[in-house]
# Entry
Amino acid sequence: MKNKVTVRFIFLILTIIMSITSSSCQRKDKSESEDVVLKSYRLIDENRADEAITLLEAELKITPDSYDFRSILASAYAHKAGFKIQKLAPLVTIAKKLSSLKIKKEENLKNESHKSLDSSQSILKLNYAFEVFDTIPVILPEKIVYLDYAIHLLNSLDTKIRTEDVVYRALLKVLRLKYKISAKISVNANSNFSSNPTCKADLSGLDEYVQSVAKEFLSLIDDVKAANPDQKEKLDILSQDVEESISSFKKVANPADQLDDVASALLKQTLLQSNLGAFIKCQ
Amino acid sequence: MSVNRISSVLTFLITCFSIVDASAQLAFSRNSRTFETVNSSLFIKGLAHACLAQIDVPDALPCNPAVTPFNKKASLNAEFLLSNGYSNLQSVRSLMSSEYSQELIDTFFSKDKVIQIEAGVNINFLSKFLNAQYNPLSVKAYSVVRNEANPDIDFYSVEEQGFNFQSGFKMTDNLSLGLQTRFLDRKFIKQRFKLTVLGTQAGRDALQAKKQNVIFVEPGLFWQMDYQWKPRLSLLVANSGFFSTDDTTFKDPAEAQLGFAFSPPVYWGDVDINIDYKSLSYDENLWWEKIRLGVLYKYGSMHFTSGVDANGISSGILYGLDKINAGVLYSTTKYIKDNDNYYTQTVYVQLGWQI
# Structure
């Protein structure tokens, strides 16, 4: 009798273990029909963005209005372009430095000292701006098309776009902007440019470039504004400043052909020193 | 009730496991033995929290207050529990204070993109009439990041402190009733969010830690049967109480919890086998996810524990010297969770001092 009871209990324990195991096995089978969102996340994290894109595009054919699939597809394309958000983490530190940047001014200082302190502050800000620029990852030219498509996908969400995705689009636009700026700056200046008198500043090209960079920058600011309505006033002023600077640059750039030789040479030298050799054309 | 009958009923219930459609899926993998609102010791974690009918709990108060009259001797001890991932403790507390930094973001993307941490101190007093526990601080956090291109983060962090009092009396030699009162102060965040939401004021506001005071009043019943294998039945009405806010972030609804245990005789040492039916606050929608099995083998002052439930498996050892006890526990969601690629492994260590 005692043995019989013992056997029953052993059977009970084995049944419990087997049942829990069999339940978990069922769950594993279920993983094949895993939620599309999670599956695409997994593919992106495993550097299989192409497969994630195929999966999401197929799902979008079935449910074209799916917000989540479209937004994740945008991130899959951004990943294919080489973007990982943690690469931007150092920006948080720089942003903190920038926001805490305030030089204490003593009341008994002379006007000149105030001015020098203001200039020091501006130089520091500029320094941080360069630091920010350096921190932003560079997208390879052959991959920029994926980044553009990611932005396009987010744009297609139109008014339904959520604020966190507006921020994401702003980040992608920052990459786009860096690409645009770097593409011109990185062009090596030809050593003959300096000595060749037929080589002159291509101001209309430069103007076109500045306008397009400014347009992208303004669109970026619009996204930041949409995500942070409390900063709207500050950002409106910034947008206005950019627009004013661009329109004054346009005025200078338009009569480029009218520049005398000295001004033209000076401008050429400035462009060369600023690594903007791409805007010098030789006849 | 005969042992045979108990066995038959349980066998019937458990056989139903295999015909239930396991349709519920966790969105992300979780920790198998750390739960948002459960403050448990290493020994109890080792048993997969199957402890309602466990009389001898060497490092904490009994899980059911009705067990109080069965305490063998009075004791006072302090226990310190720590899990792996303790290096993330500072980052987690920064997030609770809304201090965003590069280090915090780096932490989210650290190894396997998973943050897990549990740390806590408990001071326990046990006697035949009254048990009391003071928890000066316990911290639990879990975070997982998916999609490195536009990270989706599932995160919770809970800081708790409070008191727990238990008392019980024997109605007969084998039947006892008990009452447990828990007073808790909680500070917590539980959110699934896109990392980019931190770029908006509204998002940062939504990630502010919330506070809640809770008083739980939990009655229990314990019945020990006179059979050779000492079958024991335990019932606890858990999570019945009062909340200072209507916040429903944590699902800890009042529920009746059932525990069954028996001790098959072995030649050396003692064996306790526990089976509990209870929620541990994750989204356990299916009834079989609430079943937990824990096995204890005690030899002298060594306690070997093993446990299995739908959240994972665990195994540990707790060893007590004269004044000091120490233990280590391993738990994992591997073999249990849906995706073998996404699983967690946790090691807990505990050090205690008996006064």
